[in-house]
Amino acid sequence: MGSLPPSLDLSSPSSKNPHHKHISETTLLNLFKSQQDHLNYFFQNLDLSQTLSFTETLLNSRGTIFFSGVGKSGFVAHKISQTLVSLGIRSSFLSPLDALHGDIGALSSADVLVLFSKSGSTEELLRLVPCARAKEVYLISVTSVSNNALANACDMNVLLPLERELCPFDLAPVTSTAIQMVFGDTVAIALMEARNLTKEQYAANHPAGRIGKSLIFKVKDVMKKQDELPVCKEGDFIMDQLVELTSKGCGCLLVIDEEYHLLGTFTDGDLRRTLKASGEAIFKLTVGEMCNRKPRSIGPEAMAVEAMQKMESPPSPVQFLPVIDHHNILIGIVTLHGLVSAGL
Length: 344
Known about the structure:
Helix content is 41%, strand content 14%. By secondary structure, it is of the alpha/beta class. The strands form 3 sheets. A 5-stranded parallel beta sheet has the order 2-1-3-4-5, sandwiched between helices. Strands 6-7-8 form a 3-stranded mixed beta sheet. It has a two-stranded antiparallel ribbon with strand order 9-10.
């Protein structure tokens, strides 16, 4: 790692600036405790019957589940929609402004539209309601104020109990948005379980992530094959195969017969040990005399993560695995470097 530039002073800014402001640890701790109390109020007072009706409505929706909101509630609505999409549930965020300028055309009578609003008096959402109702969409409001205009205009309302905002003026939406997020994400997981989503199905929706790769990628997807394989015959002299050993980037030779049956492996570590033990006699030794006749191997249909586990298993880790079919025919090689490069 590089050194810090000499001009960089890591001492406390307050030591040089007498007007530097700070927050006491006690103040910060008290804020977290207060937020915890406000969240506990939500959990203790949430109407589970409303929540169950809401969840089952989404579960039985025949169309797309749209979410909408304005400002911070809009960000939450968008995030919850994306969570459902990642679980394989048809969902989308509908901007209330764009909806009134053409995007409402995406709605159909089979859809559900969920409107997030703390106060239930958001003008943009209230203007959207009659237009969405004309499309025969099922309307649900999620609010934190009782008897509000939005709740009265929708087919269903879920009240998210809010004691107060953590903001000292009870204005900045920092607790209301937190409970919206907790509510939406918890409902999403309830839908996930009700739909019996498997880990494999979840991974299929996250192919670029490590979880997805570990559950999707097979050895055949990440192995080297054909001309990339460092192969030799058991009768070949070790010293004649140095280029093959070093040029393919695998750190080994795969010893095969005329029919491409795997007979063994010879690694760069084996080369060093043989050279140390045999000295000049190495020039007369064949690969077959010094190779490992019982190497670990794996099949092409095995999961790539299984290959990594097999490489790391006792008695000692290895950097590669020959890939063979059920007839012991060599068809590829998978390396630890290749697995790491693939994101595993």
